[in-house]
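Task: sequence design from structure.
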């Protein structure tokens, strides 16, 4: 009887995957749920949406135009923010640059410029010196930039960046986290919907995010 029950459960799971789609996402297929939800910064009925990304990530760069349009379309439904996944551990230069620009309240306005530096100019910012040179080239006072870059606040956040990624159970980019609990990414979509062409994965990921935002909003 136990073998029959396990077989039945397996068949039900396979059937649920067959019915999964970006517009009707199924947990375990198009998205997963964190066992321990993370605290959110949004207030009221707004749903927090976090993008884990890396400046050098081609998939993040490719997603960016559609993601920005999606965020704009969501309007007051969401509170959007980014977290840079530390690619090389707790001294990751890309995360260091992100946290510095965030501390200076200019990351949002310079985000596209940094992506352009990496993916259009093909200028890789791989070290602290690369970051500082880039900042000076783009109009920052070197001394003031370095003061923030090596400040206690930024260095503390840099040391804790890996721990934050681990708490969200994120190890690839781009990844979207909705309401501190629901996670989706193009890889999940591709695995559960192999017939979707590569160029359609970003839109499909945002369709899943649409559903998850509404799911989170209904629970507020």
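Answer:
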């Amino acid at each position: 009887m136990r073998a029959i029950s396990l077989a039945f459960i397996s068949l039900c799971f396979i059937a649920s995957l067959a019915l999964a789609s970006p517009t009707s996402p199924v947990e375990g297929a198009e998205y997963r749920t964190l066992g321990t939800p993370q605290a959110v910064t949004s207030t009221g009925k707004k749903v927090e949406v976090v993008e884990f990304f890396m400046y050098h990530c081609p998939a993040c760069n490719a997603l960016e135009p559609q993601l920005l349009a999606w965020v704009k379309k969501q309007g007051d439904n969401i509170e959007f923010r980014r977290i840079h996944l530390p690619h090389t551990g707790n001294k990751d230069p890309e995360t260091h640059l992100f946290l510095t620009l965030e501390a200076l309240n200019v990351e949002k306005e310079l985000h596209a410029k940094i992506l352009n530096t990496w993916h259009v100019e093909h200028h890789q910012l791989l070290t602290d010196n690369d970051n500082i040179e880039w900042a000076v080239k783009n109009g920052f006072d070197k001394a003031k930039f370095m003061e923030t870059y090596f400040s206690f606040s930024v260095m503390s956040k840099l040391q804790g960046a890996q721990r934050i990624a681990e708490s969200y159970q994120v190890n690839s980019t781009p990844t979207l986290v909705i309401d501190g609990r629901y996670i989706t990414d193009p890889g999940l979509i591709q695995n559960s919907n192999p017939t979707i062409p590569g160029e359609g994965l970003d839109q499909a990921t945002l369709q899943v995010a649409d559903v998850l935002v509404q799911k989170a909003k209904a629970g507020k």
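Residues 104 and 148 are 8 Å apart (CA to CA).
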